[in-house]
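Usage example:
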Amino acid sequence: GAGVSQTPSNKVTEKGKYVELRCDPISGHTALYWYRQSLGQGPEFLIYFQGTGAADDSGLPNDRFFAVRPEGSVSTLKIQRTERGDSAVYLCASSPPLLAEPHEQFFGPGTRLTVL
Amino acid sequence: AQSVSQHNHHVILSEAASLELGCNYSYGGTVNLFWYVQYPGQHLQLLLKYFSGDPLVKGIKGFEAEFIKSKFSFNLRKPSVQWSDTAEYFCAVNARGNNRLAFGKGNQVVVIP
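Running the assembly step on the lines above writes:
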């Protein structure tokens, strides 16, 4: 079946601009996660959705970052007034409904954001 | 918050050699443990996971990992590597009841034919 998809695969923008990154989770997965991976580092948690609501947004670095998931499926990560330090690969992951046992997270290919 | 340490960021070895990658985490409570792998040009995929039960878990492609609670470790092993095991390997942890994963910095493994 189809995996997690992310668009665009690459985004180049100028400092100060606004960007939106999109994530399509696996069908039926209620949980959706955003991570950021800088060069030479492991992925770093940003935000987690359960359905439409953000269950944990404690990883968002500041108020320039915001994410939505209005219908409980597709999610958009929004970054205002981009800075060069925002350059990274932004990863999206999804997982099935949480029952008795925790589930693995299935990752998408990522969006490589470059801020010039 | 939990943190994860992976050492020896770059590992180079020959085919048929044995591989062991260390992973240590800092968290006092119950955890779920994962190893993810990223092959060149591909996205992160799960290699193996530990939630409970037998602390020795077997994953895909001949990999295994052992959870040692007293050492806060979850080391990854493969007795005989192949060229196709060239990849970056990430250890990840989440606290039971908390879905956010904490990743280590990763191990870049290169297997020379």
